[in-house]
Amino acid sequence: MSADAGTIEPAVPDEVRARSLVPLSTIDGMADDQVYGWIQTLERDYNLPPPENSEFMPVEDLRAWLREAVCSTQVLAVHDRQQAERERCRQPEICTTDAPTHEMAEEALAVLQVHNEPPEVFARGAQLVRAALDEKKDLYIQVIGEAELSGILDRLITWTRVSPKGQMRQSRPPREVVKDILALPAVEWGVPPLAGVTRTPIFHIDGTIHATSGYDEQTGLYYSPDDPVRPPLPGSARPDPQGDAGGVDRPGAETHRAGEGLTLPSFRSEHSGKFAGRLHGATGEGSRAAGARPR
To answer: Structure pTM?
Structure first.
């Protein structure tokens, strides 16, 4: 397809076309203003410019161009991506009416596992945990109890029930389901183990460094820098915010200047990731697990 010229390549005969964004028979029956509207839609939503000099073209020529456009590889590829994104964002639904507790628990746990990528929910000491911020925005390891897990599942899943009149109503995660999940052996949760949290990049035995915010599978540590700007690696200069070498950094934030090695991890961190918004929304008090530096 030539985006500059607004032409469609290759032209596919009607009899071998397997798919089209709009049925070709619908295009044939469109009024003139609908044809113009669809051409504008393809340009706006599918990045397909109209044909050259389209303002001077007869509407039937534009209709013929539209028939080709809705079958083009570019338009269908964009449509497929949009559909996949809608499906990914669509919340699964679990109906609680007359459903066995263990079946609902299995479905809910499967949803949690799918959405836990990149990992934000972990297992530690045979307990579900997550990284959370306290009122001072210091990070600690929070145990996920009934209240916390109920909040997570409520945000990930649409819970429904059937009323006595046969109408579908909004519901909440049943307490029995939450308790059933928490009572499972830790290995059945299907979440990674958490060794600790750290604000500094993580050294590996092979000499590599994990400096990307998030979970490190090799060490089981969750890394999130205290400063949103990642510290430079050894050998690179770091501008001093005070304008001289005597600048003072915030407490708890390690500084890496030229010629100095990266510090070993201190067990503190911050929670981040696209899943964090849903996880942080759940209420409940947490406990500081071993491995989080006491303040």
So the answer is: 0.53
